[in-house]
Design goal:
The protein is α/β, with parallel strands linked by helices. The chain is built from eleven helices and 27 strands. Helix 1 runs parallel beside helix 8. It is globular and about 55 Å long. Bound molecules: flavin-adenine dinucleotide (FAD).
């Protein structure tokens, strides 16, 4: 043991890995290089920071003495620009070179921008890190109406938060229904109700076609059917891709993200990847996917860290578990959730409260995915059942109908 560990990225994957390496290797050197301007923070709450509701200190995950106590050297505000995997060196934006025995790539994702005219105009934002959030925060303060583009999970957060600080919000969604394909039909209906209550103007079946401006500032958005929306503030959330373009010449096997095996090891023996930059084989769907949520990123970080120290190999088998708050609703999207099951039988389980329900998807007699609204205990149990592919005797008997009672599901899971 006692190696030289280099970690690129200071999100949950990188920092959980660092913490676990220190648990297992008391003498090794651990260095974390990250482009972020502050240490690890709870990224899901970045929209609340961006609208000025929370300060940076309120979203920090670890106190500064955590890094000192664990002898983790942080190099912040620095970007890894090149990996020379033969010489085991990472070059950074400040001209430094970092050597390593073991390297973890935990660089997360970068937001996409649409390739339409005018996308570089001032007043158009994407957001993933705090520097981008600072820019949104400064702009949002001037209280203009805003257009949020993209009905994904981040788009929903920003539409909600910007509305809550009093801005007029138009929410442009490409799909026919808000919430699709992440949530099931009933979940989408509840979400739509939340946004209606909030007073957000949701425009479905609407895509961006061009941005028009004056003096290099955004003035107008042109959408489907030549719909024209006057606005000087636009927040884009049309998707993201793993932040791996700096690895292009490294020789590492990359598809969407860094391809890793069950131990989160890349095509190079001493290089691992975890979190949103890694492409893993999903334990349920057997597809190679990037799991873009907090829980899976930190679980992967813990396992990668352990495997980097060279102890007993640990396999990563966690299924996706995306925790999502939309207004007053709390969802868990588990396993194949709603989004990636092509074939499967869906059954709803509802109780007295119409805003609490479970939708499970079954395939060949086992549960492969679930959308849970409220009911955190049921979520935990379903996660276990899905992850371990636990066979439930007589499952078919309970799911012959489209809808069942919540009590019945609790009995099935007991
Ligand atoms: C606005 C928002 C809302 C979200 N809401 C939820 C939610 O409700 N529930 C949920 O489960 N998940 C949510 N997520 C997703 C969750 O935050 C991520 O899945 C998680 O942070 C991924 O962790 P990670 O460690 O893989 O990457 P990240 O947390 O993205 O960290 C990667 C780090 O690497 C740095 N980096 C990137 N490239 C380089 C480079 N070349 N050199 C150096 N450093 C680099 C980045 O600056 C960043 O600090 C949300 C994300 C966002 C952005």
């Amino acid at each position: 043991m006692a190696g030289n560990y280099l970690i690129i990225g200071s999100g949950p994957a990188g920092i959980t890995a660092a913490e676990n390496i220190r648990n297992l290797d008391n003498k090794g050197e651990i260095t974390v290089v990250s482009e972020e301007r502050v240490p690890m923070f709870y990224r899901p709450r970045i929209p609340e920071y961006a609208v000025g509701k929370l300060e940076v200190e309120e979203i920090m995950v670890k106190k500064m003495d955590f890094y000192d106590q664990n002898r983790i050297t942080l190099r912040l505000g620095i970007r890894a620009v090149k990996l020379d995997n033969e010489r085991k060196i990472v070059e950074t934006s400040d001209g430094q070179r970092y050597g390593y025995d073991k390297l973890l790539i935990a660089t997360g994702i970068v937001p996409l921008k649409p390739s339409v005219p005018g996308v570089e105009l001032k007043g158009i934002f994407t957001m993933h890190d705090l520097i981008q959030a600072d820019r949104v925060r400064a702009f949002a303060r001037e209280a203009k109406p805003v257009v949020v583009v993209g009905g994904g999970l981040l788009g929903m957060d920003m539409a909600e938060e910007l509305k809550r600080i009093g801005l007029g919000v138009k929410f442009l969604v490409r799909r026919h229904v808000l919430g699709d394909p992440f949530f099931d039909e009933y979940g989408c209906k509840l979400i739509q109700e939340e946004f209606t209550l909030l007073g957000v103007d949701v425009l479905t079946d609407t895509e961006i076609q061009a941005f028009e401006g004056m003096d290099s500032k955004l003035a107008k958005i042109v959408a489907t059917d030549r719909k024209q929306i006057e606005s000087s503030f636009c927040f884009l959330s049309i998707g993201a891709v793993p932040a791996v373009n700096w690895l292009e010449e490294s020789g590492l096997k990359i598809d969407k993200g860094v391809l890793v095996d069950g131990r989160l090891q890349s095509s190079e023996e001493c290089i691992f990847s975890a979190g949103n930059s890694a492409q893993i084989t999903d334990t349920v769907s057997k597809k190679q996917i990037v799991q873009t949520n907090w829980y899976n990123a930190s679980t992967q970080g813990r396992i990668a860290g352990s495997n980097m120290t060279g102890g007993e190999p640990i396999e990563y088998k966690a299924t996706t578990n995306y925790l999502k708050k939309v207004g007053n609703l709390s969802f868990n999207l588990i396993g194949c959730g709603n989004a990636i099951v092509e074939v499967g039988r869906r059954t709803y389980f509802k109780g007295d409260n119409p805003r609490e329900y479970v939708m499970i998807t079954t395939k060949e007699g086992v549960i492969v995915g679930a959308v849970v609204c409220g009911l955190p205990k049921v979520s935990m149990k379903l996660k276990e059942v899905i992850e371990k592919q636990i066979v439930i005797t007589n499952l078919e008997k309970f799911i012959t109908q489209k809808e069942g009672k919540l009590d019945t599901l609790l009995k099935i899971l007991a």
